[in-house]
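Recap from last week: sequence in, structure out.
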Amino acid sequence: MTRSANDDMVEGYMDGRKLTTPVPLNNRSASYRHGFMVGHGEKTNSLVGDFRSLSMAADKAMDEDERRMVQ
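Predicted structure tokens:
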């Protein structure tokens, strides 16, 4: 099931497209880090993966964030 990007993912995507933004560490959410990777990959033409695999990775990141919130 593919979900819509959450606010953290969108923020990470926008930051990733700014090539001066440092790579995020684990203090950021998995959604932010995924969005950053996609935005940076698009901007630098280095994005790896097709739509299906990237969508699955986005869902996995959101699942990880949801698990963190429950704990």
